[in-house]
Amino acid sequence: MKEIELNKFGYIRVGAAVAALSIGNPEYNAEEIKKLCIKAAAEKVQVLVFPELSLTGYTCSDLFHQRILREMAENSLKKLMEETALLNIVIAVGMPIEADNQLFNCAILFQQGRILGVVPKTYLPSYNEFYETRWYRSSQSRISNNIVLCGQTVPFHENLLLKDKNSKLCIGTEICEDLWMPIPPSSQHCLYGANLILNLSASNEIVGKMDYRKQLVTQQSARCISGYVYASAGQSESTTDLVFSGHSMLAENGVIVSETRFETDKIIYRDIDIEKLMNDRLKQNTFMGKVEKQDYITVTFELKHEITTLKHYNNAYPFVPGSKEQREIRCKEIFAIQSTGLYQRLKKTGSRKTVIGISGGLDSTLALLVTVEAYQKLGKSLEDIIGVTMPGFGTTGRTYHNSITLMKELGITSREVSIKAACIQHFKDIGHNLETHDVTYENVQARERTQILMDIANQEGGFVVGTGDLSELALGWCTYNGDHMSMYAVNCSIPKTLVKYLVSWYADSASNHNISRALMDILDTPVSPELLPPDENDNIRQVTEDLVGPYELHDFFLYHMIRCGYSPKKILMLAVMAFEDKYDEKVILNWMNIFYKRFFQQQFKRSCLPDGPKVGSICLSPRGDWRMPSDAAYDLWVSELQDMECL
After folding, report:
1. Residues at the annotated binding site?
2. Whole-prediction pTM
């Protein structure tokens, strides 16, 4: 794949750096900071944050009142800017600033020799080990909006936003204690447009404080739907009664994406997806809430498009947690949501029986397991679950025996109704040749099965549990008014890639060996509706993924289209990276075209879906998360894929 300018897709590379300092020696500190800036530039970092008062050292105490220290800090800043003028990085360092007859603890933001602005700290801690009001004043005491620093007249304001001309990046800044307040300044910054918050900090270590800092950073980045760069004073600041660790974090919308602690001369960096953050803000229309009128200063700057290798988590299976431990937790939670939804529906309708078609495939297996769990919650006999296997022209011995084993071992009522004779009669009635294996041949079988389930539900005073999953709904891979329909669809927001893990998780935890063995064989069975005759060896001939494409690709496309709002080009770029060892780029592009066409063309099926429990962040229910006209054109999405110049 060709090199890609990732900034065009909304990615900004941000970093936090902790230099080895000499307390009270700005000249030395500036040199150490410069070294890390050069290293960061080599890694294409575009926004780099150093700790609070990093040019002087945070722990200078009464030395801050020494003019020689403040003058040397300014001289060192000027030299640092001159020596980093060729680096295309927005750099944030800390130093004391004298203005309005007062001293302020400030963040200095500069790029290529130009000071973009100076942000004074608002909330000054003077409790326990902190005594900042002895030396500094809050930004609320500020009078001037501009100051002269290093010969430049620059903005001097706590409400300062830096906007990139070439992207959606908008930077806001706060300093250490500001974050610890009930309403941090960054909350207001984000309401006024900031999507990346920088925090220059000096937070010492005591037992348990690290965890609290992480909670603050993750929660603030989540509340603000923003990126958050937190750089804290390093081990060099440790003196007298205090120890500092250089705890630094990069967060994106509630997730710590990189972190370091007790390391010096260390840079951490990642790519933050500004496009996704802004899309989330647009979708979450409560985000702006009540915006208080405040004065803001906006300064523009320009980042060049440089990053071409992605340093951002790009999971090929976005619906599936990465670690086994997380998967087990997630599977248990999803299973509980599904079974609770069905439990409530059973309880409120007073249905005596539940009817479910058991095919020996993944989806019907998961639906059956969920139904068993719901009945156990109700304290009802599992015999009130009626599992119906309906052999047809494509049913293989493998799937048939697995379905029989499951029903028997789980202790539900098992019924078998062959659909062959009824389908042959129907073919005669409508004048269809039995040997013509077309869509009519397939859908007659699917609708016959649904009719049988509905009629048995009428007989027994119960209702039908649907088995179709989210991936099938996205592609419209279901027969309209056939398996498309039920009284309650327990799998409707479970994608196929996750269905596999849920069944696997159940198999691993099942105490019944026969159930586990059947489940593992079901997991190994190719996904198929079994509507076409098997081959001469009784193997499945109709493999779904050969016809509509790999579900792992379609789930990837679905997640990034619906959850992130990405363009087809961006999704294609990410898919090529995520599946580079498995699928050729042309193969991915082909299936992606099919995904978009089917997603748009099959919306009419989703417009009349049965009820079912929402489980994850993506749901295609027309009553909930997804409202789309059934006749929307897909041309715009598909045509963008024709231009491959970006790849």
Report:
1. 127, 203, 209, 357-364, 443, 467, 472, 477-480, 605
2. 0.92
